[in-house]
Structures are given as structure tokens and as C-alpha cells.
Amino acid sequence: MYLTKDPLSGVKRLLKEDHPGVRCVSAWVLYCARAIDIKEAIAVQRETLKGADSWARLRAIGYLGSLGPSAAVALDDLGTLLEDANTEEAIREAAAKALERIRKKH
Question: Do the beta carbons of residue 75 and residue 102 sit within 8 Å?
Fold first, then answer.
């Protein structure tokens, strides 16, 4: 049996959703499936960091941290979250851990 349809087409459509959490997770799934490149995945995660959805922001921070030094382009974004006294403590803690992981191999 041959696949005639892209099995990830539904996930790719989710990249256009309004909800930042949906875009964030969709980008990560597509990156892990090698359906988008790392630059695109990082761009979506960085955009998610700017939103107000705490759950989505925590996911994006975790994904960026798991990329290690490959996510160095997001260092300033994560640093801003860490330094902002108005940012929730859980997000600041996650940003600190992600920064450590990204800087680890530099």
C-alpha cells in the first residue's frame, strides 16, 4: 500500500492556527518528523515566547532548551523572560534552565 497523501498535512495546517500553543507543538512535531527545518521550528518557538499563554510559553522554552546550542539565536529572548520581574516564576525558572542547556556546549 502506498501513501498518496502527506501524512503530516494536517499538522502542517496547524502551523497557521491562531492559538500559539497549537503552533508551538505543531512546529515541534514537524521538526521532529523532519518535515520542517530547525530554523523554522525555532522561529515558531521564539514567536510563542512573546505571547501571553503560559502553557505555550513553557512548551516553547522547553523545546528551545532541548535543542541546546542549536537554539543560540533565542538566547536574548530567553534572557528577557528571565530578567522581567513581571514574568511568572515558573516561566523564569524554565528560561533559566533552557539558557543553561543552550549555553552548555558553547
Answer: yes
Question: How does pLDDT run across 10-31, given as a tens digit for each residue?
Answer: 899 999 999 999 999 999 999 9
**Model pTM?**
0.89
DSSP 8-state code for residue 69:
G
Domain boundaries, the chain: 11-103
Neighbour-count burial of 12, counting CB atoms closer than 10 A to its CB (0-12 exposed, 13-18 middle, 19+ buried): middle
Fold of 11-103: Leucine-rich Repeat Variant (1.25.10)
CA 57 to chain centre: 8
